[in-house]
Amino acid sequence: MHELTVVQGIMEVLERRRRERGFRKIRGVELVCGPYNCLAEDSLQFWFDVLSSTESTRGARLHVERLRTIFRCSHCRQEWDEHPEIQACPDCRAVVHKIVPDNDIFIRQLEVE
Amino acid sequence: MQIKVMDKVLAANDVWAGEVRKLLSEQKIKLYNLIGSPGAGKTTLLERTIDALGSSLRIGVIEGDIATSRDAERIGKKGVAVYQINTGSTCHLDAHMVHKALLEILKQSKFDLVFVENVGNLVCPAEFDIGEDAKIAVLSVTEGDDKVEKYPLLFSEARAMAVTKLALLKNTNFDLTAAKAAFRKLNAEAPIFELDSLSGEGFAAWIDFLRS
Hints:
The complex is a heterodimer of chains A (about 110) and B (about 210). With about 110 residues, chain A is of the alpha+beta class.
């Protein structure tokens, strides 16, 4: 992934949200990404620090959560990881759905002042 | 104070991908995005595909490379409208580049099918939606059967996998069964085409897929 491009995108979102919501400073940015396009958090933090030219973003900490593919029973809601492949719940025999997260990168939440 | 937002970060490219889709819909064009390593056989696959499709469909090609118009020249020899994008240094095509290229190529002709041959790279092109109807993953038997697992984003998002250079299989230790199984693990439905572009082996099913 191009951490620099992603950070530019993050900065655009932060600026827009700052104008809309009027907060003074960003303390933290929580990101989520899909299982296959994930970002290196330390590289992202590095480029974020480089591009932070204003007081409102300087010093903010970035956190990236990588969403996983899971299997979930449609009835009893039990969940399993990607391995092994299962189609019927071993407990209630209902259909098990494979839930694959989007491979997009989202800002889920901001910590602001 | 915490603010929940759920804002997409790479929204700018998506806006242009939307413009590409609008243009494709207006012009009734299907767009295929061919993604594979440098040397996977993308251009040769396109040359053979153009031959096989004949004049039954109006075809256009957008070539993406860092430098040279060598691929566009090869495609041009097939008598098909082609436009070369030279990115200079960027390792992938993005939707804005493809939108501009489509406008250029549409000055030459109308099309039923446009192929984008992306910059040779298994990594970055998969990350950028260019407004395509389908990403096609191109993997040759000389690249190693471990590449499907190593590059999961492309292979999980592809709507088809074209395995190329089948005639060379006997000269390699490429385990075709293993590569197909690895693909199925990431991608439940996309068809797999086993092709040899120089001989035309396997092309009937591939052409049916492109037409559908």
